[in-house]
Design brief:
By secondary structure, this protein is of the alpha/beta class. Helices cover 36% and strands 26% of the residues. 29% of the residues are buried.
Length: 196
């Protein structure tokens, strides 16, 4: 599931496959975007987080709104050593992402939650969005720390948000970090036909 960024959407019309943003991704990449830059320039910061299993990616995306307008996006992912060994065909990608600091390899699945929570302490986001059916431990810890948590719609319910993001990209209002793993996840997104 996390291999595809949890973004398998259901669309209302037939014949849709993939996300238009993925085909033009490079035009919105800004290699100068780091977490430090985002936090320095953005007056509003939001976080989305999702946790995979022992063999899947966990991820955190930070979205900031600069005073000048638009959005900056930074991401980080985690994968256990078991997960790294499970997907040998992806290891060149994982190695590249490790070198850029975008991917952290952990010994156990629980380390990702600890590191995500530590980063949340540094970021102080307005809202943290999580899968309402997962990450209950992170959600509980956020609530204990008075960090607002919201459930992110899944499946076809996320389609309006996806369309809004697409408009933002093509209006050149969004710039993303240059991580190879984020690019790969976006390229793996598929729109699933609901029919009728």
């Amino acid at each position: 599931r996390s291999q595809h960024a949890n973004a398998i959407m259901e669309a209302s019309s037939a014949g849709i496959d993939g996300w238009a943003v993925a085909r033009h991704w490079s035009q919105w990449v800004d290699a100068s975007i780091t977490l430090d830059r985002l936090l320095a320039e953005c007056h509003e910061v939001f976080v989305g987080a999702d946790a995979g299993g022992q063999a899947d990616l966990s991820a955190m995306v930070v979205i900031g709104r600069p005073a000048a307008g638009g959005y900056l996006v930074w991401s980080r992912a985690w994968l256990t050593r078991h997960g790294y060994a499970t997907w040998p065909k992806n290891q060149p990608l994982y190695d590249e992402a490790k070198q850029t600091g975008e991917l952290i390899i952990t010994d156990t699945a629980g380390e990702d939650i600890e590191e995500i929570f530590d980063l949340l302490g540094e970021i102080s986001p307005l809202i943290v969005g999580v899968d309402p059916y997962g990450l209950q431990d992170l959600a509980r810890r956020c609530e204990e720390s008075r960090i607002e948590v919201v459930g992110v719609p899944q499946g076809y319910r996320i389609s309006p948000h996806l369309e809004g993001a697409e408009r933002g990209f093509f209006a050149d209002q969004i710039r993303v970090c240059s991580g190879p793993l984020l690019r790969w996840c976006v390229s793996n997104m598929r729109l699933k036909d609901r029919g009728g």
